[in-house]
Fold each of these.
Amino acid sequence: MSESGSEPHDFTAAGGHGAVPTAGVPSAQAPVAAAQRDWPLWEVFVRARRGLSHVHAGSLHAPDAEMAVRNARDLYTRRQEGVSIWVVPAGDITASSPDEKDAFFDPAADKIYRHPTFYTVPEGVQHL
Amino acid sequence: MTATPSDSEARAAYALRLGDDALIAAQRMGEWIAAAPQLEEDVALGNLALDLLGQARSLLTYAGQLEGAGRDEDAFGYFRDERDFVNAQVFELAHGDFGFTIARLLVTSAYQVELYTRLSSSTDDTLAAIAAKAVKEVDYHRDHATQWTLRLGDGTDESHRRMQAGLDAVWPYVDELFETDDLVQRLAADGVAIDPADLGEPTLAYVGSVLAEATLSRPDITVRHTGGRRGIHTEQMGYLLAEMQYVARSHPGATW
């Protein structure tokens, strides 16, 4: 990663909020305990019930993958939110950059024919 | 309920033992809230405490019904004195450092898994139902303790030292969990209770396998502490009760 802080910024998916810049951003904070520094960040995906996809629920710190699953169970499924959990090292996620937003996403704006709005949805079809 | 009075008394006494174990364990575990080494672990230990408190509520409520004297869970929890509590002493020991807490949780949750697994087949329908719900919870507690025991025992020199020290401190109180007496033997003969004497071997077999994998050693017993089932407790019990009971006794009947 660039240490200079000059454009273009580096980005990371850490924090569970999508791509965020990592350079040139004020990051002063109180010193944290060694254990907290050492524990890597994990992104958590929870499947609410059978038939649905895993959805990003948030992120957490854990010493390894097994403990990350357990921490996710305690943090994100306390109220029966899920039947399955995935955890992924946050550093292993490659995210799109906000700088590319125009090229990535805006061209889809006027392609209404890509939406299934010209069909009649049969009665009783869920999760569409 | 077709039980004879004396049978009800015995069942109430048994439910009280299990309920006090869970209540005191919950109180100790709850002390970690906002004080755990990590935010994630803080939530995990809080969840365990709530599981234990839920078990305590069910068991103490049932004890009150069997007793038939109008005492509810709050009466048992807040308005009994130290000598009336019949939890095993291991549950009341101060929570110590994280190594001690995990060492205690490993032993007590392993014991509770063996207990509630068997008790879920009790001829007493209420105890069986409470146990069937609790066994899933304590199974997770045992897993949590196991994961941490493996990591601390087979981690750094310091984590190994602390984990072993925790085990050494817990061990003199372990045998009390497996003590038997006339009460449980009589109930066990009727299929109501589980004789704790039958739980020692499977509990310690599980704990032993975890300790071996974690490169920890099973402590040598030099002294055995006992007496909790008769209301004899350690010095630390008084401080626990003072904190747990203070508000309820200062403001009797208060609600919010």
Note: The radius of gyration of chain A is 19 Å.
Amino acid sequence: MRPLRDEARDELERQASDLLTEASDRPVWTPKDKGAVWRGIVARAGERERALGPRLGWPLSLALAGSFALLAFALVHTRARPRSQAAAGAQTTATVPQVESESSWSDIDLGAVGTLRVARKTVYRLPAAPARDYRIVLEEGTLCAEITHRDAVTQGPLLIQTPQFQVVVIGTSFCVDVHGGISRVSVTQGRVQVQAPTGTAFVNVGETMGSDDPRLRPARPVTPPAKLLANSSPVRPSMPQPAQPAAAQAALPPSSLAEQNALYSQGTLARDRHDGPGALAAWSSFLHQFPQGVLAPEAAAGVLGELVEEGRDREALTAADDFLVRFPANGRAAEVAFIRGNLLREKLGRTADALVAYQQALGLATRPRLKDDALFAVGACQRMLGQTAAARETFKRYQAQFPNGVHSGELSRWLSETR
Amino acid sequence: MISRVVTHLQALQPMPEALAESTSDLDRVDALYRTHADFVHDIVLRLGGPDLDADDLTQEVFLVALRKLGRLPPETDLRAWLYGVATRAVWAARRKARWRRRLGRAIPPLESHWLETELDTGLAELNRRDARTTLYRLIETMSEKKRAAFLLFEIEGLSGEEIASLVRAPLKTVWTRLYHARREFLKALELERKREP
């Protein structure tokens, strides 16, 4: 960079000095604030103690720590050891040794093809060299893939072959799990085609299909057109069926924490790439598949955040409602209630409902800053609704509780002007 | 992402039995709090900047102290140890703040919507807020070590020796960090001024 002339340098340093001086002023931290923070420490310590008693606490903590360990090592290199057993049905991969991943999760860069994330103890084989039909054999375990869009004519599809079926991919994000004699594919972006000996079906974003899915069973005799007309159902036989309901999911064998973590981390990876729809699809898929999963509250909060980010206000409101119903004791419930209030007030113009939401946030909040904002919002809504006396009471309460709160200066002036 | 999960898990971790059963550890932390709360609050306020809640972070720091104080060697410099805990809390909160900032961008803070348009907010306070916001934006991309040295020296007014003692680094290292931090700050300010109409 070209050196500045002396005068310019002096001016810049003067501006820097002014800025630093101005920014050095700090809000006063009064003994009352200090006391409030200490009471918060004692309360939060007590909450943690109550949240998990000693009997349930340690086992659950260990389970969660295990879950974390899977995540923490997700990006560590894989050491793969060869196994002599060959996967059934392998065609283009016959000369490549089969591997069983040993680390918790391993990322495999397939170059222009995309990336794979393979769970521990997954038995799989990659093709020896790029072929027109890129075929990966998955014998047991879980792998997730993000596949770059492929030209169907020149490159052909990517194929994931399991003992039960074959997944045909043009370009999408998905996970395939082979466990207990059943293969399942979950799609987080785009769609894939599943080809089984008994039938073929498409799996769309947010859906999961198992090898025992009725859609892969041999087709029944075609219904005569007259009967179809008589049937009031709008679903045509050839259309893909909607995602499996929660009851059907519950009937499936319990999935591993690893699979949950993979799906959740797909969402965060997409979000970090600023791919909002991708993150939304991954987390929605997570909530669909693992409604009681360890990271379900995180996924639900992620869905809410993305919907707000995309300006899908009504859907965001529904997501916030859903979060508060499903996870009322979660640490983020207060924040979600507050966001719900903001959506109602600002985006939907429902100030009375917003007031209730802010009151709920106030009741749930344990963190001082959120309490501060929620109490202020309650008073502001009351004011907007013409409940002046109630607003004055709320603002006075605010001043008593947060004398140095974020909104205290403005409120003092407003109260003195409207006296 | 992992930090978020760590936080999620930490929030669910039970209190050690010894702490849950007796108040003696709480009493010890109470004493620690009386002595060092102002210091910790200053540190998290300065290092965290205007986007983070200093009260909340102060609570976090002393909750960590509550869990770990009993296991510290007796010769531990508690002030320096608290500084380390505070900086880690700030770093974690800064990472977490990404998620919240995204929500904040979508729905601007209440104060900017209602009151500033209806009531006369003090000009001096607005200037101070602007200065704080500008300062922390200019040093957003600075490395954490340089950022800490810069803020502690320029804003908090600590001496080089005090900073060296807190960050457990040689004095010369502190001066080096400060030198580079100042250069980066001036460069960022110069670019900012050039962008202004």
Note: The two ends of chain B are 38 Å apart (CA to CA).
